[in-house]
Specification:
alpha/beta; seven-stranded mixed β-sheet; binds S-adenosylmethionine; 3 domains; disordered N terminus; Vcp-like ATPase, Chain A, domain 2; globular; four-stranded antiparallel β-sheet; single chain; Rossmann fold
Length: 316
């Protein structure tokens, strides 16, 4: 039975209560998930923070420790959860996840099948996309991972939207009671071609499948299997994300650096190796007018995997 109770939805509440999960943000590369408990404290290098001071405050607020240090308390959105969850496996990140949610055409009420569950990074975003009336059935053959994922979905308030099954999807396929009920299927498996015939049986007419694979040889084999299993519109993408660092700097300083680096004024204002020392120079140098400068981040992620999409043919 699919859960159809519209009350079983993701929480979009604005204020922190006892028992809530919050993301404690120290800086962009230092965040952690904390369950609020009235009698507990959080201790870090900024001091001791009493949870009781957090209750009733809005998500996004800045809170202070006994010695004046501060952190931000953020809502546990799927985007932040992906950054703080415990990595039991390789996971999908925001760039691939966003693309998957869009190309699988997910809307509230959809039924999605997924395997493997892994660390539940993608599952969390699938659940939000199909909430409040849809459902994600996710399967992993590794029992401990399935148990840990269920615990995480409890913590993040998604357990009414997600069912986690322990099953060898490459060996046995998806359960027969799901035949013809899926709007979308997502595979993150080492040999996805073994699960494709079953995925085809699970999909509604016109349903969409996506398979994530790190290697192009896996993509080739999956694509052949898709073509011979009534799938059409087979397309593969690689999503590469480029983030930018934005800082304030003095124009005259930037121009000098630009010319020494590339000979192209305005193109790339900062030399790579000088980054750290420059950052402090910007603070110290009071001459010239400050400007906002942007450049691609040195931490940008490279290849993660290929996303192969295909649509089950209509029987006209
Ligand atoms: C890379 S992880 C998936 C990560 C997940 N997409 C995420 O974002 O967190 C791959 C998972 O597939 C599971 N797996 C591998 N072979 C499987 C099979 N035959 N049936 C079910 N699960 C399988 C593994 O146990 C592992 O947890």
């Amino acid at each position: 039975m699919l859960p159809t109770d519209p009350m079983k939805k993701l929480s979009f509440k604005r204020h922190i209560s006892d028992g809530d999960l919050v993301i404690v943000y120290e800086k962009h590369d230092n965040m952690k998930a904390v369950k609020v408990s009235e009698k507990s404290v959080l201790e870090n290098r900024f001091g001791v923070f009493k949870h009781s001071d957090w209750i009733g405050k809005p998500f996004g607020c800045k809170v202070s420790s006994h010695k004046g240090g501060f952190v931000y308390l953020l809502a546990p959105t799927p985007e932040l959860w992906t950054l703080v969850l415990s990595h039991r496996t390789q996971i999908l990140y925001i760039a691939d996840i966003s693309f998957v949610v869009m190309y699988l055409e997910l809307i509230p009420g959809c039924v999605v099948l997924e395997s493997g569950t892994g660390s539940g990074s993608l599952t969390t975003s699938l659940a939000r996309a199909i909430a409040p009336t849809g459902h994600v059935y996710t399967f992993d053959f590794h029992e401990q991972r399935a148990i840990a994922a269920r615990e995480d979905f409890e913590k993040t308030g998604l357990s009414d939207l997600v069912s986690v099954g322990v099953r060898d999807i490459q060996g046995e396929g998806f359960p027969k009671d799901l035949v013809g009920r899926a709007d979308a299927v997502f595979l993150d498996l080492p040999q996805p071609w073994l699960a494709i015939p079953s995925a085809g049986e699970m999909l509604k007419e016109d349903g969409v499948l996506c398979s994530f694979s790190p290697c192009i040889e896996q993509v080739q084999r999956s694509s052949e299997t898709l073509a011979s299993n009534s799938f059409t519109d087979i397309r593969t993408f690689e999503v590469l994300l480029r983030t930018y660092e934005v800082r304030e700097a003095k124009m005259d300083q930037c121009q000098t650096q630009t010319q020494t680096e590339e000979g192209t004024p305005g193109a790339r204002p900062f030399k790579r190796k000088q980054r750290a020392s420059e950052a402090s120079n910007w603070q110290a140098d009071n001459s010239g007018s400050p400007s906002v400068m942007a450049r691609p981040s040195g931490e940008a992620k490279g290849h993660t995997g290929y996303l192969t999409f295909a649509r089950l043919k209509c029987i006209a």
